[in-house]
Design a protein that fits this description.
Elements (H helix, E strand, L loop, with lengths): L1 E5 L2 H18 L4 E4 L6 H12 L9 E4 L1 E3 L10 H8 L11 E2 L8 H14 L5 E4 L21 E4 L2 H7 L12 E4 L2 H5 L3 E6 L5 H9 L17 E6 L12
Parallel strand pairs: 1-10, 2-3, 2-6, 3-5, 6-9, 9-10
Antiparallel strand pairs: 4-8, 7-8
Helix pairs in contact: 1-2
Bound molecules: 2-amino-2-deoxy-6-O-phosphono-alpha-D-glucopyranose (GLP).
The site of 2-amino-2-deoxy-6-O-phosphono-alpha-D-glucopyranose has 14 residues, from helix 5.
């Protein structure tokens, strides 16, 4: 575990974008695991800026997203397909056929879980996986539970996640109740994990996840067992992680 301390959201975004950029420079055909939520928006903006300046080239890169809501089509403004187009893919030269997300419209959920798991495997695994952190400790949409789910699966969102994500929808009633997500094994098989955190409302859960006990009640705590995790946070989000403890 490595902790990278940033001053504020902009600095955190830039430092995280630097890690992603380094990955693409070292391995132009890298498989990137990508995340949504409000935290990565600044990271994508920074990468787009560097792309527009000619500093980074995504033409050989591949992306696989962590998760997608069940029942939302790619052109629904709150689908993660739409998010990725809006903030990232439509601004860079990644090839559309190299970008992958779970298909939220597939009615046969078991078939879709198997398809997405096999797809990730066929790509040779994920070189760098970008993660955000839910307020309840979720990663992707792996919600607090009494067990860890290994592979791509469908989750029923917790009330706290529905409440946290309703700001993007008209109301809590409009938030889909289920989502596809990479499972914990899928996540742990990534060669490198970069978790980005920002804001004081994340400080408590960052401490629980990285200094607390490893438990499926806080899914992110399992990252303590991964050999190559970089936690990039601003001063507020890392305020409960004393210097030198990780
Ligand atoms: C959603 C996503 C997660 C993300 C989380 C945190 O629930 N499925 O992948 O990490 O939100 O979002 P934010 O960065 O907005 O706090």
């Amino acid at each position: 575990m490595r902790v990278i301390r940033a001053r504020d959201y902009k600095d955190m975004s830039r430092k995280t974008a630097n890690l992603i950029s380094a990955q693409i420079i070292l391995k132009p055909n890298a498989v990137l695991g990508l995340a949504t939520g409000s935290t990565p928006i600044g990271i994508y903006r920074q990468l787009v800026d560097w792309y527009q300046k000619g500093d980074i080239d995504f033409s050989d890169s591949v992306s696989v997203n962590l998760d997608e809501y069940c029942g939302l089509s790619a052109n629904h403004p709150e689908s993660y397909h739409y998010f990725m187009q809006k903030y990232f893919f439509s601004h860079i030269n990644i090839q559309p056929q190299h970008t992958f997300l779970p298909n939220g419209m597939e009615k046969n959920t078991q078939k879709e879980c198997t398809r997405y798991s096999m797809l990730i495997r066929s790509l040779g695994g994920i070189d760098l996986l970008l993660l955000g952190l839910g307020h309840n400790g979720h990663i992707g949409f792996n919600e607090p539970s009494d067990h860890f789910s290994a592979d791509v699966h469908v989750v029923t969102l917790t009330e706290s996640t529905i409440q946290a994500n309703k700001r993007f929808f008209g109301s809590a009633d409009d938030v889909p109740r289920q989502a596809y997500t990479m499972g914990i094994r899928t996540i742990l098989q990534a060669k490198r994990i970069v978790m980005a955190v920002s804001g004081k409302e994340k400080a408590f859960i960052v401490r629980e996840a990285f200094l607390g006990k490893i438990t499926p009640a806080i899914p992110a705590s399992i990252l303590q067992l991964h050999p190559d995790v970089w936690l990039v946070g601003d001063a507020e989000a890392l305020s409960e992680i004393p210097e030198g403890t990780l």
